[in-house]
Every structure is written in structure tokens, then in C-alpha cells.
Amino acid sequence: MEIIKAEFITSAVEPDQYPVDHLPYLALVGKSNVGKSSMINNICNRSKLAKTSGQPGKTRLVNFYKINDAFYLVDLPGYGFARVSRKEKEKWAYMIETFLSSSPNLLGIIQLVDIRHNPTEDDITMMDWIKHFDMPLIILATKSDKLGKTRVKPQASRIRKKLGISEEIPLIPYSSQTGLGREAVLKSLGSLLTNSLDFQG
Ligand SMILES: Nc1nc2c(ncn2[C@@H]2O[C@H](COP(=O)(O)OP(=O)(O)OP(=O)(O)O)[C@@H](O)[C@H]2O)c(=O)[nH]1
Ligand SMILES: [Mg+2]
To answer: Which domains, and CATH codes, for the chain?
Structure first.
């Protein structure tokens, strides 16, 4: 798949604020600062489409980006960010859970984990939810540029084991900074969309 058109459509908290054109959603999940918004920019070849920051907690709403007039990439707030108030945390959890549980258009999940670390408890909780609903899934092991080349593969295998996922699920070492894994991600996104839409008829 190639991305030839990418546009920000809207930010939402409640489902009645989501776009109404019934195109499928692919949602990005992962802890704060893992690189969800950067991935959207890299994959779309647009450095400023989604707002990113060195500080965790940048994305605070559910953001919809329409791609190729065919589907949405949905950028969610990150989970597991300790330094926000309990109230704010509850609001983010509400937005994430509401989005995941009340989007009939949700076709698949892109889960981002930091390749340098073991998955967090929140990553595993999220993974359990995805498995429970049997959601099509692509995992990106981000910030691969921060590891020495020889450590990328072993660390990706280790993450696969820790998450307890089968070999059929793509786990792609990725870097928004160098573009490593970009082509593989586009290919996987294309397959996910084709397979799921065929399946739904
Ligand atoms: N080296 C490196 N840095 C990255 C990569 N991806 C993201 N970053 C950096 O990590 C920081 C966080 O990136 P974001 O894309 O804002 O992360 P996010 O997951 O959207 O964070 P929240 O919106 O807070 O949930 C920024 O400083 C990015 O430049 C990557 O692949 N490699
Ligand atoms: Mg973000």
C-alpha cells in the first residue's frame, strides 16, 4: 500500500463526535511517548500532521486522520503516564475504553511497544483485550534506531514471547526516525485492510 493522501479530520472525546462516513478505523495504542503520533507522521511522509513531543502525554484526545479517502488512522492518548492527575488519567482511560468498545468501524489495532524494554503491565492488559475481541493486530517495536543493529532481532523475539503472541501476528521492528520497517508496516496495513474487508463482504 502507498499513502497518497492524509488529512486530519477531527478530535473527539465522545462517540457522537467520531466521523460519520463509516470508513474503517485502524487504531494506534501504546504507552505515552512510545511514538504513536510520530508513526502517523512517518508512515504518511508528513512531519507535522500529528503533534508529537519529547514529553509524554501529548495526545489528549481521540484524533482521526483520513488516509487515501479509504480508512482512518486513529491516534489515541497513551496509557501508563504517571505524571498526570488521577482525574486526567481517568479521562484518558475513559476515552480509550469508550473508543475501543463503541466503534463498530474498528477494523484493527496497531500496538506500539518500545523495543528497548519488556512490555509493561498496561501493554499486556491491552494485548489481553485485543486477544479477547480477536481483533486483527499489528505490533510495532518502536525506537529500533536506539538499539545496536545486532540487538534488534533478538529483542523483537523477546517481546513476542513476553506478549505471548503467535507467529501469524506481524511484529515489526520500526523507527520513525530512520524509516526502518516503514515498507513492512505499509504492506501489513494493506493486507489487514484487504483481508478484513473481504471477510466482512
Ligand atoms: N529515536 C526515536 N525517537 C522516536 C521514535 N518515535 C518517536 N520518537 C520520539 O519519542 C517522543 C514521543 O513521540 P510521540 O510520537 O509524541 O509519542 P506518542 O506515543 O504519540 O505520545 P503521547 O501522545 O504522549 O501518548 C518524541 O520525542 C519523538 O521524537 C523513533 O522511532 N525513534
Ligand atoms: Mg501522541
So the answer is: 6-200 (3.40.50.300)
Whether the per-residue pLDDT at 142 is higher than 90: the answer is: yes
Name the DSSP class of 165. Answer: -
d(CA 96, CA 122): 13
Predicted structure pTM score = 0.95
The Cα 32–Cα 80 span in angstroms is 6
CB 25 within 8 A of CB 107: yes
Q: Which atom of ligand 1 is nearest to the CA of 52?
A: 16
How many degrees, rounded to 5, is the angle at CA 150 between CA 174 and CA 145? 35
> For residue range 155-195, what is the model confidence (pLDDT) as tens digits?
999 999 999 999 999 999 999 999 999 999 999 999 999 98
CA of 110 to the centre of ligand 2 (A): 13
For residue 54, give the ligand nearest its CA.
Answer: 1
Q: Quote the ligand 2 centre to 59 CA distance (angstroms).
A: 4
Name the amino acid, one letter, at 178: T
